[in-house]
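User: For documentation purposes, I need each entry recorded in a consistent format: the amino acid sequence on its own, followed directly by the corresponding structure tokens. There are two entries in this batch. Please keep commentary to a minimum and don't merge the entries.

Assistant: Recorded as requested. Entry 1:
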Amino acid sequence: MASKTTSLQAPRRIVASNLPIAASDAANAKAEPAVEVLDETLDLEPILDGSLVRARVATQEAVPTSNDGSGSIALHDVPGFGIVLPGGINMYYLDVAPNSEGVMHRTTSTDYLIVIHGTLTLLTPQCSFDSTTGYGEPKVTHCNTGEVVVQRGIMHALSNRTDKWVRVLGVVVASGPNQVPIEGSQSPAPQHKALDDAWLA
């Protein structure tokens, strides 16, 4: 039975920003502004009945980003399940409860997952499948502390098959539409199948 309260400490967010420079220094090409450093503890938010706990770090609505201003940086609303910020970047910690199985899903994004603590189990389909009949026996990849998973619009599930909480830092970048080439097509032009966002029960 998965514990419903993460045993991991709430992470800190340190925001470092340039402060305004005095008018008397602005004309000096060698003058540099002071730097403001804010030390904040992030809020832990249980999701999916507590089998996952998320701590939001930062969002950017577009790339390139803007470094204008100082002070605490606001978090933008992220639609749906709070994973993909359309056209932008969403960064968060995700704690995965012990002995918990994730839901197979896909989002329109490229995801960079850095394992901070514990061993994450990544489940992916081994063969093409019909989503109405199931994905069969998935490929199991164990991802250890310090390792990085790069997910490129794939169907996947994040599980924890250990007796300790796992912590992952996720950087989710909105991508172009997911698609795969169609092999064996008689058409002279390359053919592709679009892959929509999906959550499998």
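Entry 2:
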Amino acid sequence: MNTVRLMKKYFLGKKSHNYQIWPLFNYKYHPPECNSLTPLPFPSGVMKKTFFYNFFPTKAEEEEAAKAGSSSANLPVRREVIEIRDFYPPPEPDPANPWRIKKVVNNTDVLTGKLVLLHNDVFEHIFRFWSLEICNQVVNGNKVYVAVWDLTPEGGPVQYQNESIYFGKGPRETYILGWLDVVRNDRVRPRDEVGLYWDQKSGTFHMKILRRAV
């Protein structure tokens, strides 16, 4: 199933520009070992996301600069996310170790309930599977509400899907995953190691505490 089909836009109020990527069907979690959720190999010629920087102002921007008596050379550089062909895609997912992103969490991740993720990890392992529209919404500062499967509880996976579970832009070319409910229910502490990946089949994040702090 194409991940893009799982992405449906909602406007939460007249002035809101936040989006949701929530499953559009009743989905029951299955472990990665099951054939029904084993990630498919990446197809040849797979696409990836990157930034395109536009150094040339539009005619409207030039006219506005002229009216203000300033030079168009001082206008900010515009950028947007685009897709390009990836000649060196990442290796095929390993169902026994599907955690594409691993992080030892710090005090900020825990206290704020916002898991900070690096630019390269997000573009390589998350944006790769999202539509250009959703990616550009995120980099432009909008929140995208998502669903997270927490595989840590011994009683079985728990799904979180509410307004505290979201993906958004962080400071200085980072991104954040809101995971306050996970922090509270799993009693996450600084120096715990968390594993994370985006599951293409379900259109959800899968997360697990891989190692507890000593």
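Summary note for entry 2:
The CA atoms of residues 10 and 19 lie 6 Å apart.
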